[in-house]
Write a structure and sequence with these properties.
By secondary structure, this protein is α+β, with helices and mostly antiparallel strands. It is 29% helix and 43% strand. The chain has helices at residues 41-59, 62-72, 74-88, 115-121; strands at residues 4-7, 12-22, 25-35, 92-95, 98-102, 108-111, 122-132, 137-146, 155-163, 172-179. The radius of gyration is 20 Å and the shape is elongated. The two termini are 30 Å apart.
C-alpha cells in the first residue's frame, strides 16, 4: 500500500487509511508517521508491522478493553443516562411484551437497559495509529460508538500506548472518557 506524503514546515507526514475488521465489525484505520526529513522507509515498514500486531492484539482483547471501560465508570454513566431518558421521555411503547424507549432520530432502546446491553451496543467507529521519528513509541486512539446512541453523538475513546521498535505486545490501555 502506498503512503500519502505531505511536507510540512517542521516534518513530513506519511499516512495511510484503510478498512479493517475489529471484533467482527469493519472500521476505518488511519495510520500516521511524522518524520524530520530523514530516510524512514525501514521505520515505516516496522511501523506498519506494529500497527498490524496492535490490531491483532485488540481483536483478542475485547473483554480486557470492556473491563477498562467498566472500571472507568462509563457503563454506569450509560445506565444513568438511560434512566434519565426514561423519566424525561414519555414515549415508551410495548410490543410483544417488550418495552422500548423511543429516542430522537427514531432509534428504539429496549427496556430495561442493562450492563450487557451497553457492552453489546459498543461498535468500533475508527482507529488512529500515530508515531514520530523521535522514538519508537506509538499511540493508538480507538473510538467506540454506541448503537443506539446513548451518549448523544459522543464516542468512548480508548488510548493504547506501545513501542513499535519491539516485537513484544506490551501495551498500556487508558480510557479517555467520551470524545466528540
Amino acid at each position: 500500500m502506498e503512503w500519502d506524503h505531505k511536507e510540512e514546515a517542521f516534518w513530513d507526514e506519511y499516512s495511510q487509511e484503510f478498512r479493517c475488521t475489529l471484533w467482527g465489525t469493519e472500521a476505518w484505520f488511519h495510520i500516521s508517521y511524522y518524520n524530520n526529513g530523514q530516510d524512514c522507509q525501514e521505520r515505516l515498514a516496522r511501523f506498519v508491522e506494529a500497527a498490524d500486531r496492535c490490531l491483532g492484539w485488540l481483536n483478542v482483547r475485547q473483554a480486557e478493553i470492556f473491563a477498562a471501560i467498566e472500571a472507568d465508570g462509563l457503563c454506569d454513566a450509560a445506565l444513568e443516562a438511560v434512566e434519565e431518558m426514561e423519566s424525561a421521555y414519555t414515549q415508551v411503547v410495548a410490543e410483544d411484551g417488550v418495552f422500548y424507549l423511543l429516542m430522537d432520530g427514531g432509534e428504539r432502546l429496549s427496556l430495561p437497559y442493562r450492563k450487557d446491553d451497553f457492552f453489546n451496543s459498543l461498535i468500533p467507529g475508527g482507529l488512529s495509529f500515530s508515531a514520530d521519528h523521535k522514538s519508537t513509541g506509538f499511540l493508538l486512539d480507538l473510538f467506540l460508538n454506541l448503537e443506539p446512541d446513548i451518549f448523544a453523538g459522543h464516542s468512548v475513546e480508548i488510548f493504547l500506548d506501545g513501542d513499535f521498535g519491539s516485537d513484544l505486545t506490551n501495551y498500556t490501555v487508558t480510557v479517555n472518557g467520551l470524545a466528540g
